[in-house]
Specification:
2 domains, 390 residues, TIM Barrel, 23% strand, single chain, 8-stranded parallel β-barrel
């Protein structure tokens, strides 16, 4: 690498950092007026940003049909916007199936990607007209076969989750040996597996995971063809990250790598993906208020009106996050905690102004995904209200 190339990379990194910082400053400035009438936590979601994210994804991955992972944020207004933008949907439960019905989605475009489904949910999905069902075990094939013999099945294979902030391997995904068992079970029941899927892990910053996943899928297609089945589908899953820092790859950078590898997949095969966090994460900003300050020995605590149970589970698990205060001052380390009486409701140490006060409002950008959906009203504290803005 030449000195000029190093200089160019450094300049590009600095530009990206400055742009991300500007976006956060603009978000905080735009939502600051909401603090004047603050009562309870709120998740503010920008319609413009939702639409921009959907368009960016489709432009970056032109061959990949996006199916929004409903679990990331099932707010009906969010779903309606993505439907208007032309995305399809991926579901995991009866409630999400009903959300699709209420939205008027064409159910043959809805994919049921939860590898373990209750018999009741399979019956419900079949009754609504869902065609495609994921499997990763022989038992799931048997279960679906008893209810919907003509179901279109796609097999989830295990791939590397290295470089993902929230790995998903282990619980789901068939190994090579496991995939063979699933294929044999489907053949024995007279059912066909005509699709392959994988998941690289949530907030994946290792683009090679998708490359290896696509290559593994090609090998799996050969196993399907050996049974006389014609591959129809490659689902490259989710994991597309929010850009928390300049070191996180953009969707455009990820798209270039994936698109190059997809050139090896025949045009007869439909390619789809399941973006969740990328589509909705950066569109949301969570507002929370300081309700208490405590000093215990040398440690200073900020208690907020929402926490682990209120939608900040990922923050508590050291997931990347940005926390911004309107107050300025010398930075200090604060231990953040939620309002409940449970000792698990702790969000770790964070740098904030040393002069923080009770009733100050904090802003958490990039919180549009897996916040309100992972929240409950434990101890009687309210879940953040979702507020849509332009």
């Amino acid at each position: 690498m030449t000195l000029a190339m190093i200089s160019s990379d450094l300049e590009s990194t600095q530009v990206r950092r400055a742009e991300l910082e500007r976006l956060i400053r603009d978000q905080v400035a735009n939502y600051a007026p909401l603090t004047r009438s603050y009562v309870d936590p709120m998740l503010v979601i920008s319609e413009r940003k939702l639409r921009d994210n959907a368009r960016r994804f489709m432009a970056a991955l032109p061959r990949v049909r996006p199916h929004f992972a409903v679990k990331a944020n099932p707010d009906p207004r969010v779903l309606a916007i993505f439907k208007q933008e032309g995305t399809c949907f991926e579901v995991a439960s009866i409630a999400e199936l009903d959300a699709m019905r209420d939205l008027g989605v064409e159910m043959d475009t809805v994919f049921y990607s939860n590898p373990i489904k209750s018999p009741a949910s399979v019956k419900h999905a079949a009754g609504l007209g869902v065609q495609w069902y994921v499997v990763d075990s022989p038992e799931e094939v048997v279960k679906i076969g008893k209810i919907k013999q003509d179901a279109k099945l796609y097999l989830r294979i295990d791939v590397s989750n290295e470089g993902s902030v929230w790995p998903l391997s282990g619980k789901f995904g068939a190994s090579k040996c496991g995939a063979d068992a699933v294929i044999e079970q489907a053949a024995a029941l007279g059912m066909a597996i005509t699709g392959i899927t994988f998941h690289v892990g949530s907030q994946c910053i290792n683009t090679n995971n998708w490359v290896e996943g696509i290559r593994s899928a090609r090998e799996a297609f050969s196993a399907l063809e050996a049974k006389g089945w014609t591959p129809e589908l490659l689902n490259i899953g989710g994991g597309y990250p929010v850009e928390f820092s300049e070191s996180d790859p953009s969707i455009e950078a990820i798209g270039r790598v994936i698109s190059e590898e997809l050139k090896t997949i025949p045009s007869s095969i439909q390619i789809m993906g399941e973006p969740g966090r990328f589509l909705v994460g950066s569109a949301g900003c969570l507002l929370t208020q300081v309700i208490g300050i405590a000093t215990r020995d040398e440690k200073r605590w900020l208690f907020l009106d929402t926490g682990f149970y209120g939608g900040l589970m990922e923050v508590a698990d050291k997931f990347p996050c940005t926390i911004v205060s309107q107050r300025t001052g010398e930075a200090a380390t604060w231990a953040l905690a939620g309002p409940t009486c449970d000792s698990i409701d702790v969000l770790g140490d964070h740098s904030l102004p040393s002069n923080m006060k009770i009733e100050d409002v904090l802003f958490m950008p990039n919180s549009g995904a897996y916040s309100t959906t992972c929240a409950c009203d434990f101890n009687g504290f309210p879940v953040a209200e979702v507020v849509m803005v332009d």
